[in-house]
Amino acid sequence: MNANRKISILIRKTLPVGMRSKVNVFFTSFSLCALLGLSALTSWFGAMGNVVSAVSTLIAAAVVAFSMMLWRMGVSQVWVGSLYQTGLLGVILFNATLTGGVTSPALGWLAIVPLLPLFTQPRLWANIWIWFSLISVLAMYCAQINGWLLHITQFWDLQPHMQALGHMDSSMEEMTFGASMFGLLVIAQLILVKTYDAANERSLRQLRQSNLRLETLSRRLQIANKHKDAFVAMVSHEMRTPLNAVMGYLGLIGMESSLNEKTADYVQGARNSAAHLVTVINDLLDFSQIQQGKLVLNPHTVNLRETLTSSHQTLAPRALGLSLDYRLGLDAGLPEWAVLDSHRLAQVTLNLLGNALKFTQYGHVLMRAWFEPLGVSSGNLCICVQDSGTGIPKESWELIFEPFVQLQLSSNHLRSGHALHGNGLGLAITRSLVQSQGGSIELTSEIGKGSEFTVRIPILIAQAPSTQLNAQHMCHDAKPKLLIVDDHATNRLVASATIQRSLPDAHIEQACNGTEAIEKMSSTLYDLVLMDLIMPDLSGTDVVRHIRSQCKPPFSDVPVIALTANVAEEAVKECFDVGMKEVLPKPFDKTALIHAILRHARNSVTA
Predict the structure, then answer these.
(1) Quick check: 277 and 243 in contact, CB under 8 A?
(2) Cα–Cα distance, 561 to 580 (Å, whole number)
(3) End-to-end CA distance of the chain
(4) DSSP SS3 for 20
(5) Could you tell me where in the chain the CATH 3.30.565.10 domains are found?
């Protein structure tokens, strides 16, 4: 930072809060410089015995100080600046009169007269003072060649002082030459001001053009971002919709008792591949939300031990197929109930366990969980995933948490036939999920000996909910009347078949679009509606909004669950805004779907 900037900042800080504009800083700077200069001249003239000049500079300094006082009192900048300019111009012309008139070197100070209005007032005032300086030089020239200047000095009894300064009468040529030089100086100032204004206007025009280009680019980026969001939502919907049918039918086939072992293995392999594709889609969507800062957490009271056990058991079949020692250790001090986002917690554990299984040829993959208390009802949930796999080079410990990064390992480090390598987003998303909950993730690893990931997430200890759903009891006794709304017949068939496997007494009706859904919901009282969001005529949220506003109770109060492939943040928020109870993504999880139905359906449990 240069000295001028430091001085400017210091002046700005010393000014009152309401007077820290650029104009006020300039006025203060110029005035202080003028006071210092005039004070120095007063001392110098006094030391040389030139009392009249010393008094004149002292008066000018007093005028500058008085103008500053008026400025602090709130007087207009134009009047304060005019007083300032008059004081400076007066002392310059007075001392020029004493030292040779238009041939006096004191007239050289006329160059500073327009500086203050140039920076603090409209351009008109700067031009006025430049012209006033030129007129003053011409007036002095006329007065001097006609002898009027001599009469003025005699009238004010200034002749002795002029003689003391060595003043001598100048020839006509000298006076003309002096007046011409100072006149040209003032004209040069006019030209410089015009040139400065032209250059400044050109810079401003270029700046405006640049700003216009940036605004246009910003608008285009915003439009492109909206298109990207729409594209992501569309791709999500179009990919999840067929996957929902694939996984649904595979799940139904897998439940058939007539399958032989070989066919069951084929079905399980297909389900694993479909589940992997769902993971890739979810990772891409989560990464998009993280990039936009739209990742939403949904903390609620969960059974912590059940959540961790369920997440761990999800990958147990894969570990069994790899002949690995796959174990879970839950510390005795781990609270049973806690407030957290169970979906995101499961996502974190599954990412870490999936990575460990992917890069472990033999040995073990162990998961441990314990609780570090930090207060009466709060602390850190600690999860450690340890494997005996390939290990990670220390120089890559930070790199693996970057998006789309996959370490290039030799073929000896991976199982033969391992085709599903992922998209390099798992650990990046895992770290973002952990950090978004105020937690941390640490890694220790050694080549050839394995890796250990340790996650710490702040949680609140909770009390067990007063009522818990007994899934087995409800599956036997529940007889809900349901409506499934989806424009894809396959999705309706898969959902119906899946529900009736667990709720055989459920009465299920179907609607193929939003218009038909409104007709059915307006005339039939359902215990629950499973609603798709994206349909060709009306969106699911439009349907619910119409039912809530146009129908009377109890039809308007029907519970609705969104069963959709569009899980973007805006879509989820809109679902809750119109009064939906829950949002389940496609492909849906059978257990989650049944629990949601039993949780929200009216009269789902018989006495």
Answers:
(1) yes
(2) 6
(3) 80
(4) coil
(5) 299-461
- CA dist 341 and 345 (Å) reads 6
The identity of residue 35, as a single letter, is L
Q: At what angle do helices 426-436 and 261-291 cross, to 10 degrees?
A: 60
Strands (E), 111-254: none
What's the average pLDDT block by block, 10 residues per block, for the chain (607 residues)? 66 72 78 83 82 81 85 80 82 76 75 75 77 81 73 54 48 75 77 77 86 90 77 70 78 79 80 70 69 70 88 84 92 92 84 89 94 90 94 87 68 46 71 89 91 94 65 56 92 89 90 95 95 91 95 93 78 90 83 85 58
Residue keyed to tokens 């930072």: 1
Beta bridge partners of 582: 561
d(CA 403, CA 315): 24
If one counts every other C-beta atom within 10 angstroms of the C-beta of residue 199, the result is: 10
Q: Which CATH number fits domain 299-461: 3.30.420.360, 3.30.70.260, 3.40.630.30, 3.30.565.10?
A: 3.30.565.10
Produce one character per residue of 479-510: b if its CB has 16 or more CB atoms within 10 Å, e if not: ebbbbbbbbbeebbbbbbebbeebbeebebeb
Q: Are 461 and 338 in contact (CB under 8 A)?
A: yes
Q: Minimal CA–CA distance to 469: which of 595, 304, 310?
A: 595
Q: Does domain 473-600 have CATH number 3.40.50.2300?
A: yes
Q: Where in the chain is the domain with CATH 3.40.50.2300?
A: 473-600
Q: Are 531 and 560 in contact (CB under 8 A)?
A: yes
Query: How crowded is residue 511: how many other Cβ atoms within 10 Å of its Cβ?
Result: 23
Strand partners, 45: none
Q: Angle of helix 489-502 relative to helix 172-254, nearest 10 degrees?
A: 50
pTM: 0.50
* The token pair that represents 178 in the structure block: 């002096």
Q: Which of 248, 374, 367 is nearest to 311 (CA)?
A: 367
**Neighbouring residues of 605: CB distance < 8 A, sequence distance ≥ 6:** 473, 474, 477, 478, 598
Q: Are 388 and 495 in contact (CB under 8 A)?
A: no
